Amino acid sequence: MNRIAFILLLLFPVGSLACSFARVTEEFVTTNQESIIPEQPNFTLTSIHRGTKGNIGSCNDAGSIKLTVNPEPEQDTGYVFSISQGEFEDQLFGEKPIVRVKKYTEVGEYSFIWLDGYSVEQEPIDIVIRIVAVSKDGGESEPQFLKVSHPGVKKPWWKFW
Fold first, then answer.
1. Phi and psi (nearest 5°) for 128?
2. What pLDDT, in 10s, does the model give residues 21-43?
3. Is this structure's pTM higher than 0.70?
4. How far is it, in rounded angstroms, from Cα 27 to Cα 21?
């Protein structure tokens, strides 16, 4: 029986994908604990990384957008991110407030990852992100609107396939 299983494993290898990401955000849980309504957030775009063609088991095809809030509030604050203008190829944000996981991120840093594609050509990004700070009791700040754009990546002139 062991020989048959071994032969089957040789004939039909089981593929495994090595790509995985640490959770850098988690849901911000609101309570009925009274707190001060947070100030309008002050996020800036830290970086945009576009996915590229690479090994299927790697994370090369993942894109990422990093935003940083400065100053990071001292009180317990979550954030709701949404796209208010433009279109995006994938779902970048959830609907619930989130906070960063402090042991995996720099101070004030929020990263968002999507599957950007498995090609050498990438479409441009031109969106406006609406960011709202949320207090522990669910109170919301005035929104911040942050423009995020990237020119995309054109196929090299010498590539015919």
1. -120, 125
2. 778 899 999 888 888 889 999 99
3. yes
4. 17
